[in-house]
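Section 5.1 Outputs to date
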Amino acid sequence: MMKIGILGCGKIVRVRHAPECVANPQIELAGFFDIRIDRAKELTEEYGGRVYASVDEMLKDESIDGVIVCTSNKTHAEITIKALRAGKHVLCEKPMCTSVKEALDMESNANKVGKLLMIAHNQRFDQVHIRARELLQSGAIGKVLNFRTEFSHGGPEGWSIDTGNSWFFNKEEAFIGAMGDLGVHKIDLMRWFLEDEFISISASVVNMDKKDSSGDPAGIDDCGICILHSNTGVWGTITASWCNYGTVNNSTTFYGTEGVMTIAEPHSESSITINRGEETIEYRIKSQESSGVADAFADAVINEKGSPVSGYEGVQCMKVVLAALRSAEDEKMIKIV
């Protein structure tokens, strides 16, 4: 049994972390903290546990084994490091932080205190992606040459607890927009699929449509398009956008020496289609109700496994995300250090 406390009570906690913790028989939900005490109270009424008056109060609770950090992006590093030093295992929402230095500090503190740090890159736990990775590794389309992948929807105002006044549109709180919210998922997923690192990037990261609460252009990006080159010579594009006002697009296509694999992920049923000349093979996979993130976190801690998405993995993703911002500013392809 693992006892978990949740820091931050936004929409992601309401639709994912809290219900998934309660559904797992190996997890006991200790309670919640949020700077809006009413939000923490609402969640305790629905899911149980207690309301903590501060981050420090939760971290001082010796009965808690681990915490899930779901606060604003700029606070991830500070709270995560404080939690690790307090002897807690940490599941941190993405993007894990706002700089490579912060990412390295989070990783090094986890290693120093011997506690598990996991970054919530949930797309790795999607059953359609797990199956697609198995097919790629089996050589279903030969050697991957290039890819294109997209994650786009209508933006935080469509699902954030604060709707149009969401902190996601506040640069001071969020630091980064669609590239940090959606692009980082695809960067992690492509690294995981290819078992490779990206070494150079050319990106356009812009604000096209989103406005802040005053009606002025939001100070963060709502769309990013990246061209990436990997260490083994694979080229690909990643599109992350909050300006898709139609159906959510969470798709990937791989082009290999022996065929093409397309992963489509609608809400009810996901599919993998492999085309090899005149041959077409299709796999249908029912979409899952749980993201699998809390389950993987608890399983790793209880059974003393390595982190399912380690601090190192998070560091590598942040290097790419931040390189995308630099590339867009310099208007050229740059190396990812």
